[in-house]
Amino acid sequence: MTATSLQNDLIKTVDHLHFYLKQAMMIEHATLPPYITALYSMKPNTNLEAFHILRAVAVEEMLHLTLAANVFNAVGGEIKSVFTNPDFIPQYPTFLPTGETDFKVGLNKFSRDTVKTFLKIERANEVDKGQPLVVPRKTTNNLLTIHNREPHYSFYSIGQFYAEIIRGLHALYAEMGDDLFCGDLSKQVTPEYYYDGGGEIIPVTDLPSAIRALREIQEQGEGSGKERIYDGDRELSHFYRFQQLLLNDDGDENYGQYYVVNEDEPEKSDRPGYPSGGKFKVDWDAVYPIKDNVKLSDYPEGSEVYEAAQEFQSAYSKFLAQIEFSFNGHPEKLLPAVGGMFHLKYQAERLVKNPIPGIDGVHAAPVYRVD
Fold first, then answer.
1. 52 Cβ contact partners less than 8 Å away, ≥ 6 residues apart
2. What's the confidence (pLDDT) of residue 2?
3. Superfamily for 3-287?
């Protein structure tokens, strides 16, 4: 079967919808380890502005994860064993699709190149009509896969991936009506169970609320259009938050600059590439030289960093189990679970401050999965 024969209508059953919504949760989570690894790699009391930018985006990625879970639960998905599946955490570096090519997302220190990768994750990538939904890739380590297809097939872009979920929801609703939304309402996360920050928690009970939830995920990442720096909530989108770190970086004068969003008259907000807010220092050297894409096997067994990495990995697995539990009818547990994600910083410090025995000038880093 060729890519051209897979262009349309991948989602034809509720089982197909569940399959791709699980992948939506995987892709929204997959940004968390890269973002918080970069966050943890910063030396204490440095890069405070960059630290807060990264932390705010990480919190909002948890919002995206929650919205995807709300949609999944609303259409009768079984959340149990999704987050606790060993393969829910990808093997880094993993590949994300972006049109004709794809790019690697890894676990790296805070740096110019790392921020450029974050921009690739969050950028708006509009594609022309007629582009196939699915294309063959050169690698099998693709985060997005196709139901019942070989692993080297993936979506043409993340935008096409979400567009197909939205199309599939409309098509299944046309067949099933309100029966599509058969999920237990007690599993919906509502606004009182989440941080009062950027974005909106949307309980999903019908087709309009499901589409709103998915649009919130899309717009908060890339913005509501190529000429706008803000999303549907009139908040600065993730792409432009990260871009603030590189706008005035010429190798000698390393400083970022804030975009300004006019919440009352958003059309008067800054235009892309033309920030008018305050400037701030970005110190690319105030970072621990952590090992890229580290695995537990990279540490000498029995060493202090080996034990610290085991403890971090165990704590991260517990965090995911708590998230899964909260999405399975216990929404009141979500706030403490998300707070726990940032308490992992103290365990991460045991790693990033210490060199790896036997490797000069290279420090340890968090391990998220055991391979």
1. none
2. 41
3. Ferritin, core subunit, four-helix bundle (1.20.1260.10)
